[in-house]
Every structure is written in C-alpha cells, then in structure tokens.
Amino acid sequence: MLQNLLEGLLFSSPHPVSLGEMERVTGRNEEEILHALQELKQSYEAREGALAIRRVGKKWQMVVRPQYGALLREHLRRSFSRTLSRGALETLAIVSLYQPVTKVDIDLKRGTDSTQALRTLLRTGLVTVCGRSSAPGRPFLYRVTEKFFQTFGLEGEEELEKLKRLLGEKGYGTAQQIPGPGRSGLAEKM
C-alpha cells in the first residue's frame, strides 16, 4: 500500500522528503502521492498520537506534535545552547532575519567579528552560502538552511516573515527596518 511505503520513507528519513524523491522510491506519480500523503496526514490527525505528517516548504516530514514536543524542544534548546556559542546563536538570528546577508552586515549588526560563528553554523548545516553580493569584493551571501527550519520547528520563509512583523510590533524595530528576503541592507548601501 502506498500510504505504508510513504509512512516508512518519512519515518526513516532524517530530513524532509521531496515529491520527486517519493516518486523515484515508489514509482508512483505526484497526484497519487499527494492523495496518499493527505490520507496519511488525516490518519495521523485522527489518532491524536505524538507524531504528525507535515509539509515543510515543498517537502514532507514526520514530526512530533507541538503539544508533545515541549520536553523535546527544551532538550534540543539546551543541547544547542551547549553546542552553539552565544555568538553563533546571535549570528544565526541575524542570518535568519536578514537573509541573504553578507559577513560584513553580520559583523556590523553584532559589533564584532563573526568568522568563527559563521564557520560553526556552516559546519552544523544551519547556514549555507547562497551566492555572492554585488558589493565591492563580491562577498559571500549567507542564508539559513532547511535544517534550520527543521531544528526550530518552522515550516519555511513565511514563518520568518511573521516573526519579523511580530518583532516590529513588539518594539524591536519596525517591520520595515527588518529587511525581507533579498534586502540584507548595510553592505550593499555602502
């Protein structure tokens, strides 16, 4: 049965699975897979267990439901706060809010050099190089990865945009002061 195969694939995958990957594994077309995924998702919702099937961007993943995940999130938070330095966490926050962003932008926002923090984030797979800026010297541009969204339980860019608006409403700068995708700010203006 297609649902069982998809369930096994999602359970065994450490990362969200694309429809293309599901097509290759199952030999079925996208329409059949989407139908089976919706039925599988509804089945998990009906049984109200700890696991759920969720869309992450254009991919699918098996996840722990939020109401059962509080303990796990706290454990992950503690693990990451031990694994990532304060500087790395600051850098990660800047990259997530201002992406794509250059190291110069990050350094200016933090007021210190971010070389080591960026190395750590690149090594952990939470941040990636996504291109080069048009600024003099053509510095690398950084953005968060799919692993970032998985780790922090975010569905994608849309949730980051909501966070930017919320930060603006809470007095951490206006939504206009927190650039959207592709408008990192400082280095390009210099």
TrEMBL record:
<dbReference type="InterPro" id="IPR005234">
    <property type="entry name" value="ScpB_csome_segregation"/>
</dbReference>
<dbReference type="Pfam" id="PF04079">
    <property type="entry name" value="SMC_ScpB"/>
</dbReference>
<keyword id="KW-0159">Chromosome partition</keyword>
<keyword id="KW-0131">Cell cycle</keyword>
<keyword id="KW-0132">Cell division</keyword>
<dbReference type="InterPro" id="IPR036388">
    <property type="entry name" value="WH-like_DNA-bd_sf"/>
</dbReference>
<dbReference type="InterPro" id="IPR036390">
    <property type="entry name" value="WH_DNA-bd_sf"/>
</dbReference>
<dbReference type="GO" id="GO:0051304">
    <property type="term" value="P:chromosome separation"/>
</dbReference>
<dbReference type="GO" id="GO:0051301">
    <property type="term" value="P:cell division"/>
</dbReference>
<protein>
    <submittedName>
        <fullName>SMC-Scp complex subunit ScpB</fullName>
    </submittedName>
</protein>
<keyword id="KW-0963">Cytoplasm</keyword>
